[in-house]
Structure formats: C-alpha cells, structure tokens
C-alpha cells in the first residue's frame, strides 16, 4: 500500500496536473500561432490580440459582452420531440445530444435572451457552433420562433448571431422544415415593422444560409467568416475550377453586394446599438454615456466580524 500511496499516486497526479495547467491558462491562436493568456483572450472577446483572428465565442459569453452589465433574461424555448426518427449513425442521436450538452453546458444549439444593450431594449438569439456544429434542428426552429414572438410582443428588434454547419441530419426532413418555419417567423417581425438584424459569424453554411440567416434587414458579418450554402471544396470539385482568393469569405461577399457591413467583434456592440437605435427611431447614443457590458468591479467591504453584526 505504501508504495502505491507514496510513489504511484503522486506520479499520476503530477502527470495530469502538468498537462492541465498550460491548456487551461494559455490558448494558441489557430491563425498566427501566438500563445495567448486566457484572461487576455476572453477580455478581447476571443479575438487574437496579435493578428485579430476571430475565434469561436459561446452564446453565453457573447451575451455577457453584449447586454448592459452582462445582464440578460433567457427566453424559454419549447422543447421539441426528442429523436423522432430513432436515428443512429456511429452513435445514437440521444447519446450525441447528451455528449454535446455535457461538453457545452447548454441544452441545445441556440440561446435566446432579452435585455438592454446600451439602454436599447432588444431580443437576441445566438447559435452555438460547438453544439453539434450549430446544426438547425427542431429546437433551433422553435428558438427562432420564440425569439420572434417575444420581439413582436415586446415591440423590440431581434438580433440574431448565426453559426452553423447547416441542417441537423439526425432529424432528417424535420430539420429541413425549419427553413420555411423560420422564414415565417422572420415575416412576423416584418409585418410588425420591427427590425431583424443578422450577424453572420464563422461559419454560417447550408440550410441556415438558405433561410433565416440571409433574411435580415441589415446583414453584418464578422471578419473572415465563411458564409456559403455549399462549401468551397464541394464547388471546386463540381465545377473543376480553381476558386478566387477569399471566395465566400465575409470581405469577398461584402465586395460582391451580399452583405452590408463587416464589423470586428470588439466594435460590434457599438455598431449594433447605433443601427438598432436608428431603425427604432430612438435618439442616437452619445459615445461614452452608455453603460458598459461589464461594469467595473465594485470593491465589496469585508463582512463584519461575527457577533458584531446588526
Ligand atoms: Zn493570431
């Protein structure tokens, strides 16, 4: 027993702790290879401080940086039927779902919230690429409908951040049905005279690009985001031609009239505040007077020693 507790266990612990520390504290930029301190990276909204590469950001972190004081109320999304086709590839669909829920800590691939952004009331929805590729299944359809209904009820604009590999194949035709469903949801906003703003993030592809992600009154994208229906590799193989540099990237689409703007993530909040206030007929925001997404840490006085309280 002594040999195990005194020698083996510390060895095992040291191997694991040695491996964990650098991974937790440092991440490597996938574009330029710079090692970035995690705090510095999250403060910069997961944009590389060295080359400006935009890495993925979770919907929850995005909302924390979008809403005043990082405060938002999650909008309830009706749960769809689980695994209607009893789909199985290498894994059962419910097992894949459980793994994605465990890895992301989220229920599904879209988060809907309401709150204020620069004292401008909005409803926002964000898609999570780390949850099964952000794939559009029945839940995502329900989420967009819930977001649109909430926006109409509260008379607020809807801002949607898209990121998806396309439809969720585990739900077959039912996932494709979300294309017309979400189109109808967007139409509800238009009929109510409310703005619908889409922020396309890397990557937005497939059925998502073919429905709600391209129906915005204003189409914004993050730099270098891949935005397409079929990916460049598929097109290249089909037409047997070399595609131009930057094909289907945000800047290329902006040059070719598919987008209104390409905006850095760090400037996105100010940009969205300006656009939504303009479209809602509100007074323009005065720079510097708006509440920050993350308030300055407030010094909390030390608790009174026990017995002295009251
Ligand atoms: Zn970089």
From TrEMBL:
Principal localisation = cytoplasm
Q: Which domain of life is it from?
A: Bacteria
What EC number(s) are associated with this protein in UniProt?
A: 2.1.3.15
Q: Where is this region: Disordered?
A: 286-310
Zinc finger (C4-type) residue numbers: 29-51
Any idea where this protein resides?
A: Cytoplasm
Residues that bind Zn(2+): 29, 32, 48, 51
- Pfam families membership: Carboxyl_trans, Zn_ribbon_ACC
Reactions catalysed, semicolon-separated, are: N(6)-carboxybiotinyl-L-lysyl-[protein] + acetyl-CoA = N(6)-biotinyl-L-lysyl-[protein] + malonyl-CoA
Specify the pathway: Lipid metabolism; malonyl-CoA biosynthesis; malonyl-CoA from acetyl-CoA: step 1/1
Q: Which GO terms describe its molecular function?
A: acetyl-CoA carboxylase activity; ATP binding; carboxyl- or carbamoyltransferase activity; zinc ion binding
Question: What cofactor is needed?
Answer: Zn(2+)
The CoA carboxyltransferase N-terminal domain is annotated at 25-294
Alphabetic keyword roster: ATP-binding, Cytoplasm, Fatty acid biosynthesis, Fatty acid metabolism, Lipid biosynthesis, Lipid metabolism, Metal-binding, Nucleotide-binding, Transferase, Zinc, Zinc-finger
> Where does it sit, as one GO cellular component term?
acetate CoA-transferase complex
Task: Spell out the PROSITE patterns in the cross-references.
Answer: COA_CT_NTER (PS50980)
How the cofactor is bound: the record states: Binds 1 zinc ion per subunit.
Q: Name one GO biological process term.
A: fatty acid biosynthetic process
Q: What does the subunit section of this Swiss-Prot or TrEMBL entry state?
A: Acetyl-CoA carboxylase is a heterohexamer composed of biotin carboxyl carrier protein (AccB), biotin carboxylase (AccC) and two subunits each of ACCase subunit alpha (AccA) and ACCase subunit beta (AccD).
Q: What family does the Swiss-Prot or TrEMBL record give for this protein?
A: Belongs to the AccD/PCCB family.
Q: What does the function comment of this entry state? A: Component of the acetyl coenzyme A carboxylase (ACC) complex. Biotin carboxylase (BC) catalyzes the carboxylation of biotin on its carrier protein (BCCP) and then the CO(2) group is transferred by the transcarboxylase to acetyl-CoA to form malonyl-CoA.
Its protein name is Acetyl-coenzyme A carboxylase carboxyl transferase subunit beta
Q: What is the lineage of its organism?
A: Bacteria, Pseudomonadati, Pseudomonadota, Alphaproteobacteria, Rhodobacterales
What gene is it encoded by? Answer: accD
